[in-house]
Amino acid sequence: MSKYASKDVGFMLLGGYSVLGATSKIEDTVSLNLNETPALGEADESYWSSGAKKTEVTQDGWFDDSVGSIHDSLVGLPVTALPMSIAPHGNVKGRMFDGYPSVQRVGYTKQIAVGDVQKAQGKYGIYYGKRVGTIVHELATESTAGNSDGAYVDLGVAGPGNGGGIFVHITAAGGTAAPTNITIGLRHSATSGSGYAAKIDTGVILFTAIPATSGLWVPFSGALNRYVSASWAYTGGTAPTVTFALGVYVAP
Length: 252
What we know:
The chain is an all-beta fold. The chain contains one helix and 19 strands. Strands 1, 2, 3, 6, 7, 8, 9, 10, 13, 17 and 19 form an eleven-stranded antiparallel sheet that branches.
């Protein structure tokens, strides 16, 4: 079994915000809701569960007011829910990541103490639980529109046909003149060397939405082939670039 340390964490992305550099601790807690069900005359406790689970994420770190960092993402606790992705095993395509389709920012604490670095804590309410998936495109910058068919990811087996979804996080875009909008997509093939076709894409992401709402969870239905890759395209701009990560979750 491979072992990983704190230095191996590759990214923590909330929408289009990249907050890993201001983070020192991440706690991911999943609990099963139980209800007490003892009846009169019973001496021992008994419980019943509907099977509903509760997922919570807490982030501890350092106050950082850089654009796109922790303060920018949490100040004012915006009501817009965003997807979150955490790569505990590195920013490397083919490795697993933890994805949360809908995250509500529910708490932001700043701590200032004599002789200490200013600290910050973010608390997140998680809707729809956690999805463990595979990184298809690591957080990296691309220029000319294209795809990663030549550097595909092998999922090991084809999906069972129960659908899934993609997590996409665009943290930056630019160029000599920035593009008007960007589309990121997932491609798949039954063979590694050829035959790639589009499975699903994000639709148009406006340049002006980065980073506030430039993260998306996009579900898909049906089967997914064994080999997958990413695609990226622009509208407008001169010598445009985009920095993004894409991961896929395959429903069992």
